[in-house]
DNA sequence: TAAAAAATTAGACACTGTTCAATTTCACCG
DNA sequence: CGGTGAAATTGAACAGTGTCTAATTTTTTA
């Protein structure tokens, strides 16, 4: 039974999210349970509801964390690549994170905000960091492109890679007899960038 | 209270799926309920379980129907287009169906088969019909491409459009400040096809 | 018509998220 | 130091969910 003195508010929040990350990784979004999270940290469900409002709030916090880990993972991938190889490293890193964190990655896209819930700022920020990393690399290989156009292309390429990654993890590609989702994504990205004047 | 004489097996199955389609369209996958379906047709939940094994079986049947409607919708789009415009009509039709059937379209990708459930044949067939329609059009604009390569490109372009469509409906593009998801998808498809020698 | 088989149901079960009154804990202040 | 008020935490209740099973009803078969 959790005691107030055991954890300050922020500590408790972090404790819940950490346990939530575990449950999400193990069970996936479909079987995620706030009660299971409560059980693991020795608090009651009510406390979680009190801290996060409802289960959606907790899932949002978990997904924001996932975005953060993902962004860090991409930065690590980039740190080892130079020149035109950076784009390829980015796509590879995108896939690698998703495959290494299937349930958590999927949860980002499986969870839908309740209609009455406005976009939580922390989630938007974490997401923006990720897209920012990618957009910067796209802009770098398109030096002659107006910034707005480069941003649009970046967003479109994120959607492109997402589609491939999503099909790969969900088994859609497997049904079609495709095994090299990453290779296909790399090709599409390269083609689009070349069409916009990139030298790859 | 449903009586056996009221509906033969196939009729009952169709009755359940039809009601299921309604519930899915109204409530979406997250709030889909087999009990609600049972209530609407005047049978008990047990009957649905008896007919479809479990709720996943019913969702699979609903999603297979959705694939069928979607395929028919694409064929209708194609019937009005000629030449290079056919590809654009296909992408437009892809988006149009998803937007006009948000919850049902999303349910296709939100539902995950239980690990112990093998891919149901009817679902695979319905899906193959859809991808077949698209693959044929891609192959038609790539006359010099080996069949296998054209198929790979088709699958990749489906994933590309899916990514854009998914981001559009989930609001991801909106967060990034992008409003023309369809236009972006059209551009990426055209670029990839041109890179493979298509004359668009 | 009687017996066997199949369909259907009601009810129980173990879950879920949410809510709320009651309790416990804490910080503050006289 | 003791008391008071506010905040945190809980347990219990509630309305849902999918799944399962024993009992019942209906149909088919013999």
Please, could you describe this protein's structure?
- 2 copies of one chain form a homodimer.
- By secondary structure, chain A is mainly α.
- Chain A has 10 helices and no strands.
- The longest helix of chain A is centred in the middle third of the chain and has 25 residues, at 55-79.
- The termini of chain A are far apart.
- The model of chain A has no long low-confidence stretch (mean pLDDT 95).
- Chain A binds chain B through residues 28, 30, 109-110, 112, 119, 124, 127-128, 131, 152, 155-164, 166-167, 170, 172-173, 175-176, 178, 181, 184-185, 187-188, 191-192, 194-195, and chain B through 28, 30, 109-110, 112, 119, 124, 127-128, 131, 152, 155-164, 166-167, 170, 172-173, 175-176, 178, 181, 184-185, 187-188, 191-192, 194-195.
- The structure holds a DNA duplex (30 and 30 nucleotides).
| Order of helical and strand elements of chain A | HHHHHHHHHH
Outline the biggest β-sheet of chain A. Answer: none
What kind of assembly state do the chains in view correspond to? homodimer
SS-based class of chain A: mainly alpha
Give me the count of strands of chain A.
0
What overall geometry of chain A do the principal axes of the alpha carbons give? elongated
What is the share of helical residues of chain A?
over 70%
- Average pLDDT of chain A, rounded to a whole number, is 95
Q: How far is it from the N-terminal to the C-terminal residue of chain A, by CA?
A: 59 Å
Rg estimate of chain A, integer Å: 19 Å
| pLDDT < 50 runs, ≥5 residues of chain A | none
Number of helices of chain A: 10
